[in-house]
């Protein structure tokens, strides 16, 4: 019999209706009660919150729980129950640091535990089976949802309400007729060191360069002391021309800027000047390349917390986004 450790953090999978909106109510033990499993399970409540409340300190707490579980000799794999809104950030953060053949499956629900058609119990059942399965060795950190298991990197929530909502990253495994089939192994990336002690204090705003927006917010972020900025451009990473000077000012002040794109697929590419990615990268921005805005922000936060020399930060960032 396989042995899986389930780490609860909250989210809709643990929520019930209240006047004023659904709120997290159930412990991990209670979440598991609705699921029939033939697996040995231990549980732990690390958090009981919606994922839109998560802080960087919470990410560290989840990661520490994962490491402890993975080092428990008989544990075959780990499941994390988590809100879907920021699941892609937590899963990606864990994947940057994950150094074990034991899989970590992050799952949740789009419909609360007390809704008749809740998807939580089935997602959890499949996540536990997958985490305990030898087919998932070396699968890394995956988001398991609606019978699909996607590598954390590049996976995003695609629909606010649909139960099939996560895609983008490598499809690592899938249930067909209740049989788990391994399909792929995610491309390996260098494993990062754990974040430094100031990780939880880092302030890294995302600033959008939509048509008609000026760089005032960007400059305001520098003035209030942002530690880094993710500039989300349009197209292949382009922005109104006022952002070029803003990026130069930030980089000169030692505040790293990452250039990402709001387009769901494809890389940031230096094609256009006069405010385009050619200009912004020449001004010193780091390219998020294929990495989406929010995962690029997590990567920047981890590297900033390690207080690396600028050249090293640039090289490690490039190696993680290539
Ligand atoms: N479906 C969900 O879990 C959404 C919820 N708002 C959360 O992220 O905690």
From TrEMBL:
SUPFAM superfamilies: Glutaminase/Asparaginase. The keyword Secreted does not apply. Gene3D superfamilies: 3.40.50.40, L-asparaginase, N-terminal domain. It catalyses: L-asparagine + H2O = L-aspartate + NH4(+). Keywords: Hydrolase. PROSITE patterns: ASN_GLN_ASE_1, ASN_GLN_ASE_2, ASN_GLN_ASE_3. The keyword Acetylation does not apply. Its EC number is 3.5.1.1. CDD domains: L-asparaginase_II (cd08964). It holds the Pfam family Asparaginase_C. The active site is at 12, 84. It is an enzyme of class 3 (hydrolase). It comes from the Bacteria. InterPro entries: AsnASE_II (IPR004550), Asp/glu_Ase-like_sf (IPR036152), Asparaginase/glutaminase-like (IPR006034), Asparaginase/glutaminase_AS1 (IPR020827), Asparaginase/glutaminase_AS2 (IPR027475), Asparaginase_C (IPR040919), L-asparaginase_C (IPR027473), L-asparaginase_N (IPR027474). SMART domains: Asparaginase (SM00870). Residues 4-168 form the L-asparaginase N-terminal domain. Residues 204-317 form the Asparaginase/glutaminase C-terminal domain. Belongs to the asparaginase 1 family. This is asparaginase.
